[in-house]
Amino acid sequence: MRDFLACTAVAILPKAEALSGAAPAACRIFAAIGEFAGASRPIVPQRLPVCDRLEEALNIAAGGPPSVMALAVAIAALSPDLCWQRRKGADREPESFFDGHANALVVGPGGIEDRDDVQIGLSLMAPHVRYPDHAHPPEEVYVSLAGGAWRNEIEDWHEPGQGGLVYNPPGIVHAMRTDEQPLLAVWCLWAG
């Protein structure tokens, strides 16, 4: 897991200055990760139907820039231990979303590293899926590893590309969608 966190920091921190608002959030998140290791705990791994697309998404990521390739390797090593879950309320969404998305919490409440100040996890979406509009109090930084477009209340749909960052200020309504490729992204939330 430490390789995953180190690779995530390398993929995000150097680019965060170029994205308005992302640098302070990213710096807080990775400073906290470096200062305190939360309690590691065994979790029961779980796969969902969309996890059949993980290998494809990791192969796409492996063709990206060096920081994305390294992160893909770290995710592949961590994948047997991940507990993939659906978004709360997914049962009220179209079936394509219900079976076409999953999130895995690596760091945070109930994650492999249990802590309450930082959340770091993965999102995986099958092709032709739209993650519904949603908002949450913590600000969020994503690094895109494979596929996908993002939007929020101040930015129209855009594709950040492999290794590109997306920043969502606190409480802003935002969403994701895919076209032909699956989406794989790492997200980091400052909840401290």
Radius of gyration: 15 Å
Oligomer type = single chain
Total beta-strand segments: 12
Summarize the amount of helix as a percent range: 25-40%
Largest sheet: 6 strands, antiparallel
Count of alpha/pi helices: 5
Strand content: 25-35%
Number of domain modules: 1
**H/E topology pattern:** HHEHHEHEEEEEEEEEE
Can you identify the CATH superfamily?
A: Jelly Rolls
| Low-pLDDT sequence parts | none
CATH-defined fold name: Jelly Rolls
Strand order of the largest sheet: 2-3-5-12-7-10
Folded structure, characterized:
The chain is an alpha+beta fold. The chain has one domain: Jelly Rolls, CATH 2.60.120.10. Helices cover 30% and strands 30% of the residues. It contains five helices and twelve strands. It has a six-stranded antiparallel sheet.
Task: Put the structure in a nutshell.
With 192 residues, the protein is of the alpha+beta class. The chain contains 5 helices and 12 strands. A 6-stranded antiparallel beta sheet has the order 2-3-5-12-7-10. Strands 6-11-8-9 form a 4-stranded antiparallel beta sheet, with no helix packed on it. It has a two-stranded antiparallel ribbon with strand order 1-4.
